[in-house]
UniProtKB/TrEMBL annotation:
InterPro entries: LysR_HTH_N, WH-like_DNA-bd_sf, WH_DNA-bd_sf. It comes from the Bacteria. One of its GO terms (molecular function) is transcription cis-regulatory region binding. This is DNA-binding transcriptional LysR family regulator. Residues 1-59 form the HTH lysR-type domain. It comes from Haloactinospora alba. PANTHER family: HTH-TYPE TRANSCRIPTIONAL REGULATOR (PTHR30126), HTH-TYPE TRANSCRIPTIONAL REGULATOR GLTR (PTHR30126:SF40). Belongs to the LysR transcriptional regulatory family. Keywords: DNA-binding, Transcription, Transcription regulation.
């Protein structure tokens, strides 16, 4: 038996003195209200209404039980309101700075369709992890090695001028005639200044004989972009980001590099809400495929 529904019918009918009016107030058909009250009477073992008159008149037992029924109905209404508020409480989510405004807006819109309200905060990798540890956010998309990642985003190099279909880092090595010229560099933006990306790229730099400065980390993405726009330097970037920045993108010939992402929480959030419920939306926001594989 639906005890709350039956008590709602009982309270509304008793307050209006009519099964018809009480059922309308409870927003159920009159026969449904009658069945619920009859079930409640069977459950409690006594009549609630005197049915010998046209008006729905409470029996002594009904008058005794009415205050308790009202308390239950009010409590149920409070629980429903609390549930609505809880659904509307935003999930504070730290996301990469490389997510464009349009991509973030689309993620937010998709989350709302899933009943999740997001409060998005962009931050670089180390700050996102710290925001979770300090409980300033409920969850964060954190940078992880690709073998631990729920989402993976391919990386290559992008420049202001069209480049080869595939760029080999070895091709940046200076010949004797170019010794006096400034070397071409690959700039890492903060999003890629993490060990599992940076160390692999600097290892390749050393293996092909480039100078240390030819793979450099920029303090900000705008700073890296300024270097690329004013020279033939290259930016380490994803295909989608390069397109948004108006750069020509190519994969690296010697190395498959990827950004890896997973969800980190401070214990108050279920990471599966994002890994599963918003998997495709997060993938599109990051520039990965909808399944989380490289786009």
């Amino acid at each position: 038996m639906d005890l709350v529904g039956a008590c709602q019918a009982f309270v509304h009918v008793s307050e209006r003195g009519s099964f018809t009016l009480g059922a309308a107030a409870a927003r159920v058909p009159q026969p449904v209200a009658s069945r619920r009250i009859a079930a409640l009477e069977r459950h409690w073992g006594a009549r609630l209404f005197d049915r010998s008159t046209r008006r729905a008149t409470l029996t002594p037992f009904g008058r005794e039980m009415l205050p308790s029924a009202r308390r239950l109905v009010r409590l149920a209404e409070t629980v429903e309101l609390d549930a609505q508020r809880a659904r509307l409480t935003p999930l504070r989510l730290a996301v990469p700075e490389v997510c464009s405004t349009l991509r973030l807006a689309r993620l937010d819109a998709e989350a709302r369709r899933e009943g999740i309200h997001l409060d998005l905060r962009t931050a670089p990798p180390n700050e996102r992890a710290e925001l979770v540890r300090s409980a300033d956010v409920g969850a964060a998309l954190v940078a992880v090695p690709t073998d631990e990642a729920a989402w993976r985003v391919p990386l290559g190099v992008a420049g202001a001028a069209p480049s080869a279909r595939v760029v080999y880092l070895e091709s940046l090595r200076r010949g004797r005639a170019e010794a006096a010229a400034s070397p071409r560099r690959v700039w890492l933006q903060p999003e890629d200044d993490v060990p599992h990306v940076r160390d692999r790229l600097t290892g390749l730099r050393d293996a092909v004989g480039l100078s240390p400065v030819q793979v450099s980390a920029a303090a900000t993405l705008p700073a890296a972009m300024a270097e690329v726009l004013e020279s033939d330097d290259l930016l380490l970037a994803s295909p989608g980001q390069a397109e948004e920045l108006g750069l020509d993108w190519s994969p690296l010939g010697e190395l498959d590099l990827e950004r890896g992402y997973d969800v980190a929480t401070n214990g108050g959030e279920d990471p599966q809400r994002l890994r599963t419920g918003l998997r495709r939306g997060v993938a599109r926001c990051l520039g990965a495929s909808e399944e989380g594989e490289p786009a």
